[in-house]
Amino acid sequence: MKKALQLASVASMIDQFNMPNIELLKSLGYQVDVVADFTNPGTIDKKRTQQLIKNLESMDVRVIDIPIPRKLDIKLIINAYKRVKELIYAENYKLIHCHSPIGGVIARLAAKDKRKDGTKLIYTAHGFHFYHGAPIQNWLVYYPVELVCSRWTDIIITINQEDYLRATQRLKCRRVFYIPGIGIDIKKFSDCTINREQKRKELLIPQDSIILLSVGELNRNKNHTVIIKALSKIYNKNLHYVIAGKGELENQLQSLANELRIGNRIHLLGYRSDILYLYQMADIFVLPSFREGLNVSLMEAMASRLPCISSRIRGNVDLITNEAFTANPNREEEWIEKIQYICTLNLQQIGHDNYDFIQSFGKEKIKKIMYDIYSDCE
Question: pTM to 2 decimals?
């Protein structure tokens, strides 16, 4: 039986981005193996990780736990490279689809000579680290590495317009596709209804609050601090900020909120399995990140008919095209202005406009494109 490998840095990336791809490969008759770090799974908790493993095994997918670093740790990278290369040569995969910057380098370096035997290498860039406005060290490190690796890549998939142009103009891969993310189940989010009062009561949030919501890992890139600082300077005390996600900055964010005397209006919920309902409970979605590929939570919020404010960066501007609802991630005063401004508008109408816009990002459209790409690798 022909074999395919899906490789990502952490299990959460498999869970959040790659399950549809695995299902497609299975439908095309592939035996699928999945490589990721399942011990330190990223943004999902242990319970969700175990459920993910069960789901994969129920699909007859082999789960292989290899710690692939997300940071430049040479020792860990070398160890991961050796294990991945040994696996690739033992299994003779017909197709390898890799994700994440370091995972993508490891997989392509390990498999480059197997292309002579007909192995096809696909790399999905979930946001190049060398982007407009990126630190110079990103260009000095990540761009040369990607330039070399692109020579060993049969197909590069980009998920935003800026990365697509950069890949076609600056990299050596002959086939580059733009696919707007993994697609979302629009109906799932648009049709969801909940008792908003009950949900707010459950989370100990006053009923008359205006809730700003963010969904994502608590790290520096997600830039939650700019919203916390902005809220401390906005007179409206009914504004509450809810963050769903876990990460290394949890204590730091709570300490900042307490220091600014708004600790009672900042709600760090940790990992949640009820994101669908949080969108329905919220009034405004905010995404202040410094760097994104094409953010799934922003698309989900739009499908949930939420008005959104995002940072004015690559990927986000593919989704939020009205600059009135974008802000510089570094400028706190812009976030103050945008939050105050959107609160004066018809939030329901803005939410409906977002819902109309996101229709072209449905999962069935993306599924068809990926099916054609995989089929073409036969």
Answer: 0.84
